[in-house]
């Protein structure tokens, strides 16, 4: 049988485009199918009335993002395309903002923690530093933290370390519930990305890299893939109701979506895809007629659950990068507290935007008077939850034989970030190459590495 396609990639987010880019570099004909009308996935940015709105991801780091920076260079982007944010991040505590979160001198400044909690911060940082080699962010399933959740790990320290550092960080950036999500991915990621001073963004929107990669690949937008099946020496996929065959398919989508497309197939019975649950994100971008900012002067303000019931974080996008708002105006993103997202979705976008904007007035005085428009972004499957149960199953998933249907996404990398997406794309490409090169089933697949 002659397949209709060489390799098909489902999803034009960074994971799919990274896989497609690598396979194309190796001489394969790759076709990317994307249901949306543009690339980017959860990194997509939108233009609205002169504002440039990042609908999902907000930043990357100059540290710990090896695969991302390799793609940046290959895509021909310059350092000017990825400017340093250069603003602090604060946490709200006892009625006012406290700067210093994520700074190199956190052990001295306290990172916004109360004085009684600062010795615990020093202990936590000291333990993490001593075990840095063991806290492998590529293999969080095998670290000294074992099956501890974030809340479990935090019980060894002063409650303030959880309430005003670990909980607001994990809720704001990952949508995690600290009683459910594993500690090892969070600690490994915090060690890898380095200080806030190393964080950067993309000029022209967070989807700049994906747009550049997609432009060099045959990418079909507005094409929905409804089913994918593995037939050993080839795969079948249904695109807009039409059946196609391919030598291999990369599913670069969240794990729950991959399970729906494959009808729950798990030929290796690893259990990891089904265990890879996701957390939602609900974000309201507020266009302002003046450049307001959260109190404290930082570009981001974390609002812990014990201080604020409705919000988890506020981001001044025009401080993150000036091109996000027209001159003399402002753009503030409001991230909902994960536990309140179902209620906000049920209330409808207009009412949800009103509620979040009203709650934000406490942290950005004058926001209501300056507000000209709100734009709602709801991602039902925003970030992999990475529970201890999922991590316990990940090793078998990584060791499974290479097949005609492979997976990519930050859930595969167990790293909820664009770097996780980029790394998983490279791994998926390597596994596809191994599958195509092997003469029979049972072939050995490449493993994820830190190289």
Automatic annotation (TrEMBL):
GO MF assignments: oxidoreductase activity
Record-linked InterPro entries: Amino_oxidase, FAD/NAD-bd_sf, Zeta_carotene_desat/Oxidored
Pfam family, one: Amino_oxidase
Origin superkingdom: Bacteria
Residues annotated as domain Amine oxidase: 14-433
PANTHER family linked: PROTOPORPHYRINOGEN OXIDASE
Protein name: Amine oxidase domain-containing protein
